[in-house]
Write a structure and sequence with these properties.
The protein is an alpha+beta fold. The protein contains three helices and three strands, in the order H-H-E-H-E-E. The chain is globular.
Length: about 60
């Protein structure tokens, strides 16, 4: 999964008080794994929006 593989680079390139929106994520297990990974890298989930089986995540430092 691209968002998984690119996570370290995405977080590294993010400004000190930056935020990122991740989309194209399947709700459920994939969503949980992505949130855990990005939180481990120092981001905090601010909001999740759902449409059918998809979710987009808004995370910030």
């Amino acid at each position: 999964m691209v968002l998984w593989e690119m996570a370290p680079d995405i977080v590294r390139l993010l400004a000190d008080k930056g935020a990122v929106v991740l989309a194209g994520i399947l709700a459920g297990e994939q969503e949980k794994n992505i949130i855990k990974l990005y939180e481990k890298l120092g981001l905090t989930l601010q909001e999740a929006r759902y449409e059918e089986e998809w979710v987009s995540l808004f995370l910030a430092r």
